[in-house]
């Protein structure tokens, strides 16, 4: 792996162990932290025992996610204390959204922690680690400078070692302030990266053999990056530019807000074969009363109308979503509207969560909090409905021939694993020399969450 080659180039190679929680943006950020530290003599390790620096990249979205951090910190502290006498020094750092939201509390509750820093400080990481060697450090400011302009790009061999698909953050933060959500507080106001920066990063990825990129943002379709002429361009226009990059075969983006699905983005879905026909468009609830209380600023009917327009542009579009059950004030009737929404849209997949009260958000102050038992009941019913649709969607793929990006070796020898345009994992009996290609695959069977296929021809498809 890239880790070995990096380590061999430095004289006093140190090791960093990063554990990542939460969303795809944290996955992307963890790689960028690895890249930032690589220039300062740190190579990544999967083995905490040999780490000089242990970082937790944390998520604050629900209470459980945040609490997990403290229990994990306890385990790491014990691990550090129980090592042999004379073991090398090991610093413990906390990054991500819990660090941003409750940095001071971490410092107080977890004295073993040497370093706490928020998502806007990642470009300062080497300097923060050097300081943490001498004193406890906390950095949760929102600095003026452009973090992304200061984060070093990975070496080509490192990108190659990370595989054929890659994340690319184009937008960070959120100005929507849904009344249940911590993201506007943990990630700050919406910021879009300049167009040239995004294109350069996408080119470097393609140059290292990456075939599929997923553009990331907490509100990715609110993207409004500035181009070289000083014009602001939206996500739709950005997709046209990215589609011109040679070698790059597939473009995806996540997560979108229904209000930002503008005509240009819908037109991009009509025009660009490289833009995959799979859209994660969370709605959270099917009830207008609850949508209003959530401050989503659209109705159920408006959401369905947006989906209609998208399907007119791209009839084979598959949809995915997020739902919250048990938001304050949610009645049986409201919940029935949510089930109805799932039936109407027929999601290819969807995530659903019990409402979790987050301190500092308006939802936490609302009356009519729903009892846990009711939330659990509703979650079960919703998940059954979602699973039924997901199963039907997968079943509908059997017999079709789909272009599949052959990504990696499969679980068993002689097997390779890929992804359909609709993000379904596809298992294929085929030679691993085909990895990296996009080939037509006839879907012959399905398992619970994946498909089974056979390659129709070994010719590379023109995408
Ligand atoms: N930016 C995205 C979602 C970010 S959080 C969007 O606008 O949709 C990912 C998902 O977590 C949300 O879509 C929501 O379904 C869920 N979520 C966020 N806050 C939550 C809370 N307080 N309790 C339960 N689920 C929550
Ligand atoms: Fe949270 Fe709403 Fe922003 Fe999504 S749009 S990140 S749910 S505040
Ligand atoms: Fe969690 Fe922060 Fe992502 S709260 S979902 S890691 S933006």
Automatic annotation (TrEMBL):
Give UniProt keywords alphabetically.
Answer: 4Fe-4S, Cytoplasm, Iron, Iron-sulfur, Metal-binding, S-adenosyl-L-methionine, Transferase, tRNA processing
Source organism superkingdom:
Bacteria
**Upper classification of the organism:** Bacteria, Pseudomonadati, Pseudomonadota, Alphaproteobacteria, Hyphomicrobiales
Alphabetical list of HAMAP family matching this protein = tRNA_metthiotr_MiaB
Q: Which organism is it from?
A: Pelagibacterium lentulum
Q: What is this protein called?
A: tRNA-2-methylthio-N(6)-dimethylallyladenosine synthase
Query: Per the annotation, how and in what number is the cofactor bound?
Result: Binds 2 [4Fe-4S] clusters. One cluster is coordinated with 3 cysteines and an exchangeable S-adenosyl-L-methionine.
Name the chemical reaction catalysed here.
Answer: N(6)-dimethylallyladenosine(37) in tRNA + (sulfur carrier)-SH + AH2 + 2 S-adenosyl-L-methionine = 2-methylsulfanyl-N(6)-dimethylallyladenosine(37) in tRNA + (sulfur carrier)-H + 5'-deoxyadenosine + L-methionine + A + S-adenosyl-L-homocysteine + 2 H(+); N(6)-dimethylallyladenosine(37) in tRNA + (sulfur carrier)-SH + AH2 + S-adenosyl-L-methionine = 2-thio-N(6)-dimethylallyladenosine(37) in tRNA + (sulfur carrier)-H + 5'-deoxyadenosine + L-methionine + A + H(+); 2-thio-N(6)-dimethylallyladenosine(37) in tRNA + S-adenosyl-L-methionine = 2-methylsulfanyl-N(6)-dimethylallyladenosine(37) in tRNA + S-adenosyl-L-homocysteine + H(+)
Coiled-coil boundaries: none
- Which cofactors does this gene product need? [4Fe-4S] cluster
């Amino acid at each position: 792996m890239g880790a070995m080659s990096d380590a061999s180039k430095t004289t006093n190679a140190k090791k960093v162990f990063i554990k990542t929680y939460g969303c795809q943006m944290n996955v992307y950020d963890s790689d960028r932290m690895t890249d930032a530290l690589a220039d300062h003599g740190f190579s990544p390790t999967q083995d905490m025992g040999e780490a000089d620096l242990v970082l937790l990249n944390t998520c604050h979205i629900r209470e459980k996610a945040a609490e997990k951090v403290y229990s994990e910190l306890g385990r790491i502290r014990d691990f550090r204390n129980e090592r042999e006498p004379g073991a090398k020094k090991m610093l413990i750092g906390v990054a991500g959204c819990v660090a941003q939201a409750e940095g001071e509390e971490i410092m107080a509750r977890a004295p073993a922690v040497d370093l706490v820093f928020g998502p806007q400080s990642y470009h300062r990481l080497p300097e923060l680690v050097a300081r943490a060697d001498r004193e406890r450090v906390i950095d949760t400011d929102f600095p003026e400078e452009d973090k992304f302009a200061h984060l070093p790009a990975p070496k080509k061999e490192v990108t190659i070692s990370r595989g054929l698909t890659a994340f690319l953050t184009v937008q960070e933060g959120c100005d929507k302030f849904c009344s249940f959500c911590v993201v506007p507080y943990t990630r700050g106001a919406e910021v879009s990266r300049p167009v040239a920066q995004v294109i350069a990063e996408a080119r470097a990825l393609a140059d290292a053999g990456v075939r599929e990129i997923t553009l990331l943002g907490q509100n990715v379709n609110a993207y409004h990056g500035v181009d070289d002429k000083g014009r602001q361009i939206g996500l739709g226009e950005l997709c046209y530019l990215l589609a011109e990059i040679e070698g790059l075969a597939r473009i995806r983006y996540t997560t979108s807000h229904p209000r930002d699905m503008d005509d240009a983005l819908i037109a991009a879905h009509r025009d660009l074969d490289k833009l995959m026909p799979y859209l994660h468009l969370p709605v959270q609830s099917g009830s207008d009363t609850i949508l209003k209380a959530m401050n989503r600023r659209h109705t159920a009917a408006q959401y369905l109308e947006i989906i209609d327009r998208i399907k007119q542009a791209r009839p084979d579009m598959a949809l995915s979503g997020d739902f919250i059950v048990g938001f304050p004030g949610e009645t049986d009737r409201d919940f029935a509207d949510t089930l109805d929404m799932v039936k109407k849209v027929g999601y290819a997949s969807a995530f659903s969560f019990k409402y979790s009260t987050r301190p500092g958000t308006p939802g936490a102050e609302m009356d009519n909090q729903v009892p846990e038992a009711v939330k659990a009941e509703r979650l079960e019913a919703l998940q059954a409905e979602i699973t039924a649709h997901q199963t039907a969607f997968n079943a509908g793929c059997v017999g079709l021939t789909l272009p599949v990006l052959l990504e990696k070796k499969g679980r068993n020898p002689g097997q390779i694993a890929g992804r359909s345009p609709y993000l379904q994992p596809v298992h294929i009996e085929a030679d691993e020399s085909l990895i990296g290609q996009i080939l037509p695959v006839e879907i012959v069977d399905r398992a619970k969450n994946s498909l089974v296929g056979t390659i129709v021809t070994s010719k590379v498809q023109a995408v």
